């Protein structure tokens, strides 16, 4: 069972074994400590029935290796192309290799990550749902309630739409939870194409084909090689979900969220995946598809976009740095507006010239210090729609700020040039 398994990718790096670890905080400590190591941490959460991996794509280099690309531009173009031109799935029969977990959901790697978290969570699982010919796959945090029930945070997007449609016709929504897949599948599933574009078909385009088998109860498509498959229903019942430390490492509040009831929990000899909330892997998986959107939007208004970075400090979500080639004064401001259009949750953006590396915060600050005048080069937009993750926003409104730190007058470019040491 190779298919789109996690091992097909992770085997290339080798593993460091940590044995059996506690479900409370130990995965957090382990994953923080190993975020930039070459080998992949392998561990089993106490009393779970499947071995887990973490930090699969916790560096940008590894994310690009998972996508089979070697540069930013190639990475963004490949993802955008896959989302625009999804590819049909290759349907195969039951691949075998799954067994029923003996303790239901308790057999899965639910972990408690931070001291204020309201419970034990799966963080890298995605949910496949098909209703009336429309299929969707999306990542949701899932909080353990008991052996056969969990609370799922369903933000009002595509899964929520299908869920509401099912309830309106008097049925619960049949769902299949999948955990432990090749990271390229997760990148596609973390993206947000319009409803009707099935993220697994985008994964298929991204990977040059994706084999799926029908899930045993609902017949939903599941990538061959998945570590865990759970069949269940999203019911009309609600339960308290949260608090949960999310990507900004702020505690998301307690809400009444849909209850998942479980029909079957299946585990294989493949791996499960534990994703550290607020860690680099979380930031890259959520942020990278948004970087691609910003890159596409800014590329329409300036001759060349070099790098787009949703920064770690901004949780891979709220703050961006974009480096561009500028031909005319005013290009920097157009780039600012395009970046906000490309990623509506974006709050702050700094635009720099291509001699400034967005991955180097000191150079970015130097550009702001020497190329930026707040009375001319600052763009402020009041009361725009913002991210609900930002506690300083009000009722979904936020102020947005763009800093144009590109060289203001090209004819005087000489006075803005940074001194270099000869030979370095
Ligand atoms: Mn969708």
Give a written overview of the molecule:
With 424 residues, the protein is an alpha+beta fold. The protein folds into two domains: 6-276, Roll (Pnp Oxidase, Chain A), CATH 2.30.110; 300-416, UbiD C-terminal domain-like (3-Layer(aba) Sandwich), CATH 3.40.1670. 26% of the residues lie in helices and 29% in strands. It has eleven helices and 23 strands. Strand 2 (40-45) and strand 3 (52-53) form a beta hairpin. The chain is globular, with a radius of gyration of 22 Å. The termini are far apart. Manganese (II) ion binds next to strand 8. Manganese (II) ion binds at residues 136, 138, 158, 195, 199.
Summarize the structure.
This protein is α+β, with helices and mostly antiparallel strands.
CATH architecture of the largest domain: Roll
Q: Kindly report the name of the CATH homologous superfamily of the largest domain.
A: Electron Transport, Fmn-binding Protein, Chain A
Count of alpha and pi helical runs: 11
Query: What's the gyration radius in Å?
Result: 22 Å
* CATH class placement of the largest domain: Mainly Beta
Strand content: 25-35%
Distance between the termini: 50 Å
Low-confidence stretches: none
């Amino acid at each position: 069972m190779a298919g789109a398994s996690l091992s097909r990718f992770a085997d290339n790096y080798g593993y460091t074994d940590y044995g059996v670890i506690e479900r409370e905080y130990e995965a957090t400590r382990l994953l923080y400590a190993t975020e930039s190591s070459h080998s992949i941490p392998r561990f089993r959460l106490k009393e779970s029935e499947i071995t887990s991996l973490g930090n699969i794509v916790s560096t940008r280099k590894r994310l690009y290796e998972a996508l089979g690309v070697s540069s930013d531009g190639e990475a963004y173009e490949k993802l955008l192309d896959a989302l625009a031109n999804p590819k049909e799935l290759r349907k195969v029969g039951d691949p075998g290799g799954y067994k029923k977990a003996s303790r239901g959901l308790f057999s899965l790697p639910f972990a408690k990550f931070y001291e204020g978290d309201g419970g034990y969570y799966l963080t890298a699982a995605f949910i496949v749902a098909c209703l009336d010919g429309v299929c969707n796959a999306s990542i949701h945090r899932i909080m353990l309630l008991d052996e056969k029930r969990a609370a799922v945070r369903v933000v009002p997007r595509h899964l929520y739409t299908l869920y509401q449609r099912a309830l309106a016709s008097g049925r619960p929504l049949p769902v299949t939870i999948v955990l432990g897949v090749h990271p390229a599948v997760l990148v596609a599933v973390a993206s947000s194409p319009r409803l009707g574009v099935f993220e697994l078909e985008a994964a298929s385009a991204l990977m040059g084909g994706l084999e799926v088998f029908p899930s045993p109860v609902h017949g939903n498509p599941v990538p061959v090689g998945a570590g865990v498959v759970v069949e269940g229903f999203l019911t009309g019942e609600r339960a308290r979900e949260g608090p949960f430390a999310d990507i900004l490492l702020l505690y998301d509040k307690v809400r009444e969220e849909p209850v998942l009831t479980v029909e079957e929990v299946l585990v294989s000899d493949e791996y499960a995946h534990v994703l550290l909330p607020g860690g680099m892997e979380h930031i890259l998986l959520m942020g990278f598809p948004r970087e691609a959107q910003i890159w596409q939007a800014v590329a329409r208004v300036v001759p060349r976009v070099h790098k787009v970075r949703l920064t770690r400090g901004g949780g891979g979500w709220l703050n961006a740095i974009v480096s561009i080639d500028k031909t005319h004064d005013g290009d920097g401001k157009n780039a600012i507006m395009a970046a906000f259009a490309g990623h509506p949750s974006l709050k702050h953006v700094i635009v720099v010239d291509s001699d400034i590396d967005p991955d180097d915060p000191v150079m970015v600050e130097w550009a702001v210090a020497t190329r930026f005048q707040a009375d001319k080069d600052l763009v402020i937009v009041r009361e725009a729609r913002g991210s609900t993750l930002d506690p300083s926003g009000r009722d979904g409104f936020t102020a947005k700020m763009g800093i144009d730190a590109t060289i203001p007058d090209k004819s005087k470019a000489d006075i803005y040039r940074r001194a270099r040491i000869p030979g370095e």
